[in-house]
Structure formats: structure tokens, C-alpha cells
Amino acid sequence: MLSKTRWILLFIVFSILGCSLVLPVFNKKSGYDLLVKSFDKSIDSTVSSLNDWVIDNNTVYVDNSQVFASATPHTINGDGDVVFEFSSKVYSGNVDFCWGFNQQVMKPTNIWIWKNYTHENFTLGFEEDWGCITLYNVTDYENLGIENYDDYSVCLGTRNNSFLFNVSYQIFDEMEDLWVNTSCVYAFSSYNVDGDDYIICGNYNKSVKIWDNQTYWDWKPWNVQYNHIKYNYQNMTDWYITSSINIEQSILYKCKIHIKQLKIQLGDINSKYWFAFKPSSETLSQAITNGHLYYLDPWYDSNWQYRKEITVSSKIEGYQTMLNISKGADTTFNCSNHCNTNFSDIRFTNSSGDGLIPYWIESYIENGADSYAHIWINNLYNESTLYMYYGNSGASDSSSGSDTFIFYEDFNSISEWNHNTDTHFSLSDGIMTAVQDANWGYIYYDLGSSMQTKIKARVLADVMTNNGMISITNCLNTLSVWDWNPTSSIEMDFYDRLIDASTACLRIANKDDSATSGELVVLRVEEGLDDDVWYRALMCYPLDGYVYNDTTNALMESGNDSPGTFTNPRYIYIQTRNYATTGYTVKFDWLFVGKHTSGTEPVFVFGTEETEGISCPTSSVDTIVPYWQDDITSLQVNAT
Predict the structure, then answer these.
(1) pLDDT score recorded for residue 228
(2) Fewest CB atoms less than 10 Å from the CB: which of 464, 497, 512, 525?
(3) Domains identified in the chain, total number
(4) In angstroms, rounded to a whole number, what is the distance separating the alpha carbons of residues 519 and 508?
């Protein structure tokens, strides 16, 4: 590689919250020079020679008396993250940093800083609280004596109560639309009688957060303000400038940036992008005129060797469709043994190749030629002809759920959700745990408008039939107070249960003013689902429901009944039922909401494999289609 390519390094330092960014570059025409010039003359204009550079595996770095700088990886193939380390050994001061791009090819997206900061961390536990519940249609009870508390499995109530009773009563089975006899042991201190109903009150264990914040080094998303300027200089047409960035001598900084490719074609694409800095007192054009813009122009190399045409019939704009794509050539959708086994080099484009199609890899199995993946794509451009590109061994995964779906949640944060409580849900390593106690707990997300949807989630329940549920509904104000009493007035237009507290694990139903009218059971799973096993459940409003075993991909159950009269749902709820027994949990790995249609679904047909190259795009500014509209003068980049 050293004999074919040469490198220059520009360092860019972002010093916000104690962090800076160093961006190395790859230039095929220049030698190993570090072109850095200090504004106070403390750094010479040329400070490193060819021998200063070291390439160590996937990292390139320079370490001399004036700077240390490194980049990993040293070459970007397709989309990718680059980690930069930098330390200025002689200079401190304020500068502006400028990123120059030909927006026909690529753009910057997320930025992270490497920082020692406090991470909020908690687990869900229990503390004692006072509360009341209603037991309906009590038929019998037995006094067990509170002194015998440890001898029984108690459904609700702590030992700090006056009474311990085994109570026979009834609960309403929403699936069967009838009352079901049951019994349970309750600890309580007072009660009231209302006909055959008993209201019992006492001490019980309430779900609470137990905080254990940790401070350690980690990547931290960085919200940074860029001034977006359209200025054509040496084929760089779009500039993103940060102002008055302070760098301090002898501090090592570390950052990461994601570069996203905007255009794909067969064959090699070599595209430059600039990292530069200038005095804060000068505009970009002034710095260029005065010779005060110091830059390096790295190369972005990508090389896709194969593609297949995809013909789409019954197309729907922005519709998400899942394709089962294999590496081998023995299935309808495949990459003829030419893609990576983890499908990191898969890309989808519009017919001209200058518009990338968002996609998300739901899951994949690496097994040589038998590797396969479940990939969702979004026909963003509503075209009848798409292309799937592959055959780039160096490409990194560009899968994005948030770009592909109407709503995508990976449970690294639930800040976009509304909630009635923060004591029923905890996050850890991208998994949300919902814990059940005697109180309703829920979070919900507003899609903004009612629509036909499909919702899918990867879930695990410790006890499959006694937990929480996912709902999608067009009503906001009843789910938190619904006590499962059929005499209640329930103004719920539509809801789904993913994990149900009765015998069914998935249910789709319609509700209006009464509890039993308008019901539609689309899918009911009464057995075959195991505790502590991951499942993927898909609900397509208003017709279909499916549950798959996550490990074997086996279809556990499906249903398709004629729908009633539905109102398109708008809200997604994740909630825990105010069920008597406490401590059950449900875990959520991811959840997405996509478009659905009750009409004809889009149909995809793959063509034959193509390998011939296509000429590189021209770099004339007149042919460039900017990623952002021309009237935008500033851009807020939120690294999330």
C-alpha cells in the first residue's frame, strides 16, 4: 500500500467540553508532509518528512517534537467511522475548522467525543408503599394469619400488614369475553366491601429506580453547530465551519466522525474531501484570498464490483419491505456469493445510483455461502427500478433503522417517549426492561398522525403469560386507568397486545364505548412460547400478526381475520399491567413502526448480476446536487 499511495495529515482540533478532533487525510499525489502553520508562528509550515509517518496495521500516525496525530482506519471504503487522536506539543489558541465536501459524493453525519464523564445508571428494585386494589366477585376467602407469611407465595402485599388471606374471586378474560374464577394470597391491613367486590389496602412493594451512576471514559454524542456555506473552491462546494475552537498545548484529544456516502456505482470512486483550519477573525473567502486557509484533501476510496437490478411492481412511496437475501445463489434474492458474509457491503440505490435507499439489517446469520440476512428497505424515491450493490470487502455496515422506518427505537435512550412513570422501565446496553407491579406503568410515542402501520419488536418475557404489553392506539387517556372491568367506559379505538397478561401473547382488537363491541382477534398464541426466550412479533394493522422464534426463525403462530371498523392508530404504548402479582419483567431489544397497506404489497424481482464498470461522475460544480437545500444557511448536527 505504501508504494501506491501517499499521505498528508491535517489536524483539526475540536475543543469543546475538553475534547478536540484530529482528522487525517489521504492524498495520492503528495508526499508524507504535515502542512500545518501556527497563527503565532510557533509551528513551522512543514514539520514532518516522509520518514516521520508510520502505518501500523489499520492506523496511520505521526509523532514528532511538535505534534502527535493518528487516524483509524487510514482509508475509508464506503460509509465508515474514523477515530482520531491528536496532541499539539507547542501551540494553544483559537481557530475555525472547516470541512469541505463535494456533496455529490459524501457528507459528514454523527460526531462523538471520547470523554471521561458520568453515565446515569440504575437498576429497578422495590420499596414499600401503600395502595389499594379491587377484587371482583369474591366467592370465598380463608384467613391464613400474617404470622405465616413466609409459608405462602403472596401475590401482593408485604409482611408489614395485618392480614393474610387466600381469596377466591373472578377476573375478566378479554379474549374469551367472560369472567374466569381464580384465587390468590393477599397481605393487607384494611378493606371495604361493595356488594361482592372487596377493596383491600395495605403495604406492597412498588417498583423504584436504584441509582448507581458510574464515571468512566466512553464515546459521548456531541451536538455541534455548523455554519453551512456554499462556496466553490477547488471542487469543494459545501463547507461546514465551526468557529472559535480553542486548542491547548500538550493535551491528547480523541474523537470519532461518521462519513456517509451519497453516490454508488460499479467500479472505483475516488473522491476528495477537505479538512482545514483558518484564523477565527477571517471569513472563508478572506482566508483563501489571504493564504490563511491551511488544509489537506484526503481521498475517499470505494469500489463496488457487482450489482443487481430490482424491479418493483405495485410500488408505494416510502414503503418498507423486508427482503430475505442470501449470500449463495440458491434463493430468489441473493448476491451470487460475492457479498460479505455479514452483508456489510450491501447498498441499495435509485435507478441512477445518485440516491441511496435507506435500509436496515434486522438480523443475519454468518455461515459461509449459506449466510443470509433479513433486510428492510424503504423505497424512498418511489421508483420501479432499484439497484442492489455489493462486492466491496472493505465496506462497513451502513444499516440504519432510524433512516428506514417512520419510527425506530433501539432502546439506548427513551427520551423521545412520553411516560406516566420512570420507575417501571430501565435501560442497559441497548435493552429496556419493563417491570410489573400493582400500578400501571407506560411510555408512549406519538406518530404525529393516524396511519396504517406495521409494528415489530424483539421481546423476551421471564414469564410469558403474566407481563406487560405493547399497544398501538388512537386514544391517549384511558390506558393508564383501564382496570379490566367490563363495566368501565372504554374509549379505545384500537390496540395490540404483544405480551399479554392473559393466556394470549399477541392480540389485535378494536374497542369503542363498550368493552365487548367491535372486537377482532387477529392472532392468538396460547401455547408454544417459552419463558426467557427472545421472540420477534410483527403486527400489521389491521389484518395480520406473526410471532417468530428469534434463534431458529421458526414461525410460531400467525393470524389473519376479517377486520372490523377501525380508526387508524397514532400512538405506540409500551406498558406494564396493574396486575396483582409483581416482579414479572419484559425485555425489549428494538421496535420499529413502518407503513402498511390493506391493498397490494410491493413486489420485488431481482435481475441478473452486472459486473461492468461505469465511468466516474464529473466534478463540475454545475452538475452537483447538494444534499441540503440552497436556502439553508446553517445546519444543526445532532449526533445521536
Answers:
(1) 85
(2) 512
(3) 4
(4) 8
Strand, coil or helix: 467: coil
Whether residue 38 is contained in a domain is answered as yes
CATH code of the domain in which 285 resides:
2.60.40.1510
Mean confidence (pLDDT) of the chain: 72
Q: Can you tell me which residue has the cell 390506558?
A: 479
pLDDT tens-digit series, residues 410-468: 998 888 887 766 677 888 889 988 877 666 677 778 888 877 888 888 887 776 554 34
| Contacting residues for 430 by C-beta, under 8 A, at least 6 apart | 410, 411, 412, 589
Are 299 and 319 contained in the same domain? no
**Integer Cα distance of 343 and 339 in angstroms:** 6
Question: What values do phi and psi take at 606, rounded to 5?
Answer: -85, 140
Q: Is 442 found in the same domain as 538?
A: yes
Which residue from 626, 9, 25, 30 is spatially nearest to 271, judged by alpha carbons?
25
Are residues 564 and 461 part of one domain? yes
Assign 3-class secondary structure to 117-138: EEECCEEEEEEEEEEEEEEEEE
95 residue type, one letter: V
- Looking at the domain assignment, is residue 367 inside a domain? yes
Q: Are residues 372 and 389 in the same domain?
A: yes
Could you tell me the residue range of the domain that residue 225 belongs to? Answer: 7-117+217-303
Residue pLDDT, tens place only, 304-359: 999 999 999 999 999 999 999 999 877 788 999 999 999 999 999 999 888 899 99
Spatial strand order of the sheet with 163-173 comes to 178-188, 163-173, 122-143, 197-211, 190-194
| Domain match, 175 and 130 both | yes
- Provide the CATH number for the domain around residue 534: 2.60.120.200
Render pLDDT for 298-317 as a digit per residue (tens, 0 to 9): 677 788 999 999 999 999 99
**pLDDT greater than 70 at residue 360:** yes
Cell triple for 382: 418511489
pLDDT of residue 555: 75
Q: How far apart are CA 455 and CA 496, in angstroms?
A: 10
Nearest to 343 by CA among 366, 320, 323: 366
Q: Residues 108, 235: one domain?
A: yes
Q: Is 355 part of any domain?
A: yes
Residue 67: exposed, middle, or buried by beta-carbon count in 10 A (0-12, 13-18, 19+)?
A: buried
Output the 3-class SS for 202-232: EEEEEEEEEECCEEEEEEEECEEEEEEEEEE
**Strand pairing category for 33-34 and 7-9:** parallel
Contact 177, 92 (CB under 8 A): no
- pTM for this structure? 0.69
Task: Dump the DSSP string for 142-187.
Answer: EE--GGGGGGS--SB--SSSSEEEEEEEEEEETTTTEEEEEEEEEE
